[in-house]
Write a structure and sequence with these properties.
GO molecular function: exonuclease activity
Pfam family, one: Metallophos
CATH topology of the largest domain: Purple Acid Phosphatase, chain A, domain 2
Shape: elongated
Oligomer: single chain
Low-confidence stretches: none
Number of domains: 3
Distance between the termini: 57 Å
Helix content: 25-40%
Protein name: Nuclease SbcCD subunit D
Mean pLDDT: 90
InterPro entries: Calcineurin-like_PHP, DNA_Repair-Maintenance_Comp, Metallo-depent_PP-like, Mre11_N, UCP033093_metalloPase
Keywords: Exonuclease, Hydrolase, Nuclease
Radius of gyration: 27 Å
Amino acid sequence: MRFLHTADWQLGMTRHFLAGDAQPRYSAARRDAVAGLGALAAEVGAEFVVVAGDVFEHNQLAPQVVSQSLEAMRAIGVPVFLLPGNHDPLDASSVYTSALFTAERPDNVVVLDRAGVHQVRPGLEIVAAPWRSKAPTTDLVAAALEGLEPGPATRVLVAHGGVDVLDPDRDKPSLIRLAVLDDALASGALHYVALGDKHSLTQVGDSGRVWYSGSPEVTNFDDVESDPGHVLVVDIDDDGAVTVTPKDVGYWRFVTLRRPVDNNRDIADLDMNLDQMADKERTVVRLALTGSLTVTDRAALDTCLDRYGRLFAWLGLWDRHTELAVVPADGEFTDLGIGGFAAAAVEELVAAARADDSTAADAQAALALLLRLADRGAA
């Protein structure tokens, strides 16, 4: 028996830094990743798809998002089992019980809306642990598994949330206990555990049967999500042996670059690195830059950032991790070809830029603009 394990689609997600056409393209890519599961299922011969929570970004979605999402699920073709998670719980405002979802839900889409065993077909069962609020006060998995004994059917647990061995807050009441999962797997009550909530591909424990698939499209930067963009192909043979094969399906990247920039050579290196990055229209770049620059070099850096800001889906400075000092060099403004009052004003700006007070940043910006207008700040 073979199926696809995926999670954390979070359809309807927006990223505040994406502007212009980048946000619609990103949203479309997330829907395309869902619809594309149909081709993957056909390629590998998957019988069905389980989505381990957070199918939607939240329950209050525009009708267009719901309709387009359901159409993407229809395109998958094989049965798709949706688990409500912490983003889209089965509360009073649940998207899953809305009139629009109910009216347009394709026949191949099934909501795992109750805890416990769901029969997929004779010999195959899903054990579900749906969320009914954003902050459960108990281990939903332990409750769903309570009293479950080994049987003739192959069983797949579909659950959402943090696992105690990976969470620093071991006292959180909603944490999934790995020992409970391992006991159920060892006894034969379960054969595989499909988890959602962690957006990076992650194996949990040593059994080889407990996995987070991660999100099929990236949702955060690489310091938070180290390995997104996957769907898992899961095989369970007649003897209960499990094989898990990750498949790359994501197209977008959220990249963090940390670079020292102290001179024009460093800026040229940064320019080269950015230039060589592929698929700029589907790449988000966050820069953590540190160093001390002359005003001329800072103007060159700004020119570089302006250029690539137009090419990438988004590019900008990570303010909390960027420390750039700008110090005018001696003689840096002596050959601008100006005199009189203008030259005196420049001298005042240079003095202000070197001061350690609130006026320095404005003065540095004014000098950098002056150099760029004088065409000395080209990268």
